[in-house]
Amino acid sequence: MFKSVAKVYENVLTPLATYYRQQGVPAGQASSLARHNLAEVGLGSECGGVAPKRSLRKLVMEGASLPTIRQFLDSPLAKDPTTIEPYQQCARQTGDDSPDPMALVAVASPEVFTYLLSVAGHLDAHQQEAMDLEMGVDVGNAIDKTPLMAAAQFDFVATARMLLAKGAKVNEVTDGEALYEGFRTPLMYAAQSGSLEMIKLLLSAGADRWQADGAGRTALDYLVGTGPSRAANPRLSPPDLAEAARLLY
């Protein structure tokens, strides 16, 4: 059933992208828009958005303990391609909306991240993909968002500290073409929704407070609400917000 739907999907994709371009949508955005809309109509709005049952991704997303994750990876199910392939195949149809690599999913726990990084280190690229175990301190998703950016965005300070200790690039940027007004840094993500501790951690690691995104906005703009969110960092109290502004000015 899925293969039949996917074949129709691919046949319609190009004409739809051409239509969007004729309506004035830039070429790159037209292709992404066509993929996104077709995926929702033809494959379901949850295509790629829900981890399959009894999978590593599901365990990590639900915050399973390290022993539970170890037990799963030691089981035959972890190496069974039918465990994750239907989910990966579905998600690939959405193009830019492809699932984040495991490295971005695992940022909630530095212990789990470190363990999965170690396991992945013994696998080649094909094995990592087959097991849904694409790990690395700087591995990026479809828009080049890194684990450090994800940790900064969701304020996983311990994970950010671990990533920096392992050599994560503190001034890495997202793809300027794949993400509208891209070139965002970990510090920008932290300024928009992270804690004062996270902001200080990144600055102490060498984060460039003056680095600008594709629209010319710095981390200070993300902090005070003149960035994409149009609202000041909701995590910070007024005194912390003032202190963060002083550090980023």
Explained architecture:
The chain has 249 residues and is mostly helical. The protein folds into 3 domains: 1-45; 50-136, no CATH class; 143-249, Serine Threonine Protein Phosphatase 5, Tetratricopeptide repeat (Alpha Horseshoe), CATH 1.25.40.20. Helices cover 53% and strands 0% of the residues. The chain has 14 helices and no strands. It has helices at 2-22, 27-43, 56-61, 66-73, 85-92, 102-105, 110-120, 125-130, 147-153, 157-165, 186-193, 196-204, 219-224, 238-248. α1 packs antiparallel against α2 and α9 packs parallel to α11. The chain is globular and about 55 Å long. Mean pLDDT is 84; it is low at 1-5 and 40-45.
Reconstruct the topology from this structure.
Blueprint: H1 2-22, H2 27-43, H3 56-61, H4 66-73, H5 85-92, H6 102-105, H7 110-120, H8 125-130, H9 147-153, H10 157-165, H11 186-193, H12 196-204, H13 219-224, H14 238-248
Helix pairs in contact: 1-2, 9-10, 9-11, 11-12
Key attributes of the depicted protein:
single chain, 249 residues, mainly alpha, Serine Threonine Protein Phosphatase 5, Tetratricopeptide repeat, 53% helix
What proportion strand?
under 5%
Q: Quick one: CATH class of the largest domain?
A: Mainly Alpha
Mean pLDDT reading:
84
CATH homology superfamily of the largest domain: Ankyrin repeat-containing domain
What is the SS-derived class?
mainly alpha
Architecture (CATH level 2) name of the largest domain = Alpha Horseshoe
Tally of discrete structural domains:
3
The dominant shape is globular
Our measurement of the CA-to-CA distance between the termini, rounded to an integer number of angstroms, reads: 56 Å
Biggest pleated sheet: none
CATH topology of the largest domain: Serine Threonine Protein Phosphatase 5, Tetratricopeptide repeat
Helix content: 40-55%
